[in-house]
Each structure stands twice: as structure tokens, then as C-alpha cells.
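Possible regression after last week's pipeline update?

I re-ran a chain I had predicted before the update to compare outputs. Posting the input and the new output here so someone can diff against the archived version. Not blocking, just want to make sure nothing changed silently.
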Amino acid sequence: MTGSSGDQIAFFLPDLIGAGAQRVMLNLAKGVAARGYAVDMVLAKAHGSYMGEVPDAIRIVDLGAPRLIASV
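New output (post-update):
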């Protein structure tokens, strides 16, 4: 399955600190983007060891929340 013009998906995570769940979600987002979808990673706070691994094809949306509960 490939995305067509206008197909979008967003992934929400608290951050991209080096944990298993963040790695899995980043790999999933990369795979979806490679199939032609517009991908946003919505982060409560944009920081963590995986930030440098986010390709340009994935847009980072930083909510800048001091705590996770403040982001929702």
C-alpha cells in the first residue's frame, strides 16, 4: 500500500528518548513515510537520543509541554 497525495498520518509520543517504544514508533514512522505518506511526529517535548535519526521527510511537531499531561 502506498500513500497518495494528501494522505497523512501522525504519531504521538512524549519524546524520543532512547527507549524501546520510541525506537519502534520511529521505525514505523520511517516505513510509513517511505511509502509516500506525509508523516508528523507530534512530541510532547522534542528531545532525546533519537532526534538525530528522524529523516527530513518526517515533520516534528513540538508541543513544548513541561509534562506529558500538559500536552493533551
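Follow-up from reviewer: compared with the archived run. Residues 8-71 form one domain. Marking as no regression found.
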